[in-house]
Fold:
Amino acid sequence: MHSSSVHDYLREHIRTVPNWPAPGVQFRDITPLLQDPKVFRVLIDAFVHRYMDKAMRPDVVAGLDARGFIIGSVIAYELGVGFVPIRKKGKLPFTTVEETYELEYGSATVELHTDAVRPGDKVLLIDDLIATGGTMMAGKKLLEKLGATVMEGAAIVDLPELGGSTLLQTVGQLPLFTLVDFAGH
Structure:
């Protein structure tokens, strides 16, 4: 499949749920991408083909809680590299480092095991969607605290209107790779 047809094919399988979880929000639901085995394979292959290239190959894939676990672990498996979860605070049993970030209302904290990555590791950081960019930025900072280099942030969906991708690329100096963007409605 040509890359633009892959983007269109995946976009067709993302469900938009209006007014969820709050009035005025257009929720982009990726679960239909995972339910159909052919669509799921096209999705994973779009990432794997990019990161299989020697110059782009990570040492480890880090996935953000929780949908980043679904695609990140499969991509890591296909690339033959390890997978590490970046979890919401209080979920990891071993020694952790943590990073707190601001949400629209309040804040959230994510954690990573201290032995999840080694200094110098090239890490691919994955989530399902980039909205405000806060979670991915916190994940990048966590990985860097342990001496790793985040080579790229990747997601299925970018919501450019929410400013996250711009923030990550400018303030965070993080290259991004996304498959589908939803500008407007």
